Amino acid sequence: MERSKPTILFVDDERSVLDGLRRTLFGQRPVWEMLFAPGGAEALALMQAQPVDVVVTDMRMPGMDGAQLLDRVRHRWPEAVRIVLSGYSEREAIFRTIGPAHQYFVKPCAAVVLIEAINRALEVRRLLRAPELLALVSGAATVPALPKALFQLLDELQSPNGSAAEVARIIAVDVGLTAQLLKLTNSGFFYAAPHPVTDVHQAVRMLGFETVRAVAVLAGVFESFHRTNIDLEVVRRLENRSLEIGALARRIAEAQNLPGAAVEQAHCAGMLTHVGSLMLFANWSGEMAQLGAALDQSGGDIIAAEGAAFGASHSELGATLLGLWGFSDPVVEAVLFHHQPSRCTYAHQSGLFTMAAVHAAQHLIKPVPPGEAEESFRLRGLDRDFLSAQGLWDRVPAWAALAEGVREEYE
């Protein structure tokens, strides 16, 4: 029997904090079942006894801290949403929870922000578990086969004890992964370092865990498809386009003065927007070729066309894979909604701006076909209602100029 309401578990060793959450979130009782645990052991016992959809935990707790709790939740109940709500805001603590937690909020956190975060996470997971999408994934003969080193790397990046030194050691074992990481670190798609980066440890510290995860997945996924029957020219074009989208999304986010974390998330999501496209090409190459030819003639909407042909789109497939590989919710959301951001029902303002940067980048980076008017082509695929609602529509010409600079730099 399907549960009528999602269950949210709040964990904090301070009773006063739990009582405050009970009072603050009293109005959510009609839509959520809420549980409260005074520590990690009690939280695990509750989860063992009944299904839990979201875990919201403090960081500093005696016996078992928040990172350790979420790491256990990650292994035993991987579908549960993991959120840190903590006053422990030192950089080291946040760094430790990048992997175990999907999201991190610092106390005091406004109730509306926490409610939005939980509802957004639940809505995204509802979309990614739709029957038609699950049927498509289960019916795929080829799913990106990641190298063994990459599985070890993803696990270390999600570990509460993950370290830059260990991440660098794992990468260094795989020659291909090392070469790709250093190549991209030294490319204009990332940072303009004063001197070439030749050390993997230095690259990891420079990029940060989230970006290293994106670079590693991009390298591993594209490399895995070099060994399939997929047209290598298609792989090459998608790889270059993915890097361009990431570079432009980053520049747009920086131009909007977004926080550093949001800039990194825009860059990562931009790079990974077409992971789902590769899965479609690898499994249904003939159908994708026909679909592409039809769209070239009709100029129709690719999301609607993929949905009609396969039951799900490349954005949904890509977001599903990234969720399985442990990416943070803002990255998964931006990939899921990069064509249709208006479909995002719940999102915090900073998340909406990140999503806007990725959405605009994947349209504005496209070269204008011969004979087409540049302005009409640029604006055709943009979600004007969404961008106008965020007060960003008048920024599109400036973003288009940034796109031109990215294309010229990386041609």
Labels describing this entry:
single chain; 411 residues; mainly alpha; five-stranded parallel β-sheet
How is this structure best described in words?
This protein is mainly alpha-helical. It has two domains: 7-129, Response regulator (Rossmann fold), CATH 3.40.50; 137-145 and 227-410, Hypothetical protein af1432 (Orthogonal Bundle). Helices cover 61% and strands 6% of the residues. The protein has 22 helices and five strands. It has a five-stranded parallel β-sheet, with helices on both faces. α4 (91-97) links the parallel β4 (81-86) and β5. It is globular and about 65 Å long.
Just give the CATH class of the largest domain.
Answer: Mainly Alpha
- Low-confidence runs (pLDDT<50, min 5 residues)? 91-97
Major pleated sheet: 5 strands, parallel
Bin the strand percentage: 5-15%
Q: What percent of residues adopt helix (DSSP H or I)?
A: 55-70%
The second-level CATH architecture of the largest domain is Orthogonal Bundle
Structural class: mainly alpha
Q: Got a strand count?
A: 5
On the 0 to 100 scale, the average pLDDT is 79
The H/E string reads EHEHEHEHEHHHHHHHHHHHHHHHHHH
* Number of continuous helical runs: 22
Large-scale geometry: globular
CATH topology of the largest domain: Hypothetical protein af1432
Give the CATH H-level superfamily of the largest domain: Hypothetical protein af1432
Radius of gyration: 21 Å
Q: How many domains is the backbone divided into?
A: 2
Between the first and last Cα atoms, what is the distance in angstroms? 56 Å
Across the major sheet, the strand order is: 2-1-3-4-5
